[in-house]
Amino acid sequence: QLQLVESGGGLVQSGGSLRLSCGVSGFSLDNYALGWFRQAPGKEREAISFISGSDGSTIYGGAVKGRFIISRDNAKNTVYLQMNNLEPEDTGVYYCVAEERRGPLNSFYFPSDMPNWGKGTLVIVSS
Predict the structure, then answer these.
(1) Of 79, 78, 77, 29, which Cα lies nearest the Cα of 55?
(2) Which residues on neighbouring strands pair with residue 56, listed in sequence order?
(3) CA atoms within 13 A on the CB side of 127
């Protein structure tokens, strides 16, 4: 059974950093595109970043490009999201997602594109 479990959320001051982790089980990272969405209070889910299982290529949403870095460790079955220079606007629940995909990433992802979701981890950035 495919499972995604996020960790690493918490409270941080503006300008600080956090690293989120997503432990995966039930499938091989090589055959899946993995990524992160977030949902701020009262807002729709927003695509943050994705990484290909086949070649490690990555894409980022415009709001986080240059500040966040996605990576994966296949040996540990874990995907990471390093978040730097955090801003209050980064506050929200961060969800790890996965899609079976052996080819390149899409140029953009909607929440409906991802069939597999974790339960989320809360990030709060104080000003």
Answers:
(1) 29
(2) none
(3) 2
For residue 31, the tally of other CB atoms under 10 A from its CB is 12
Where does residue 44 rank: exposed (0-12), middle (13-18), buried (19+ CB within 10 A)?
exposed
pLDDT at residue 101 is higher than 90: no
| Residue 18, both tokens | 């956090």
Residue 8: count other Cβ atoms within 10 Å of its Cβ.
16
Q: Is residue 19 within 8 Å of 79, Cβ to Cβ?
A: no
Question: Which residue do the tokens 């091989």 mark?
Answer: 28
Q: Looking at 14-115, which runs of residues are DSSP E strands?
A: 18-25, 32-39, 45-51, 58-60, 68-73, 78-83, 92-100
- The 10s digit of each residue's pLDDT in 23-49 is 999 888 888 999 999 999 999 999 999
Mean pLDDT of 6-17: 98
Distance CA 126, CA 105 (A): 33
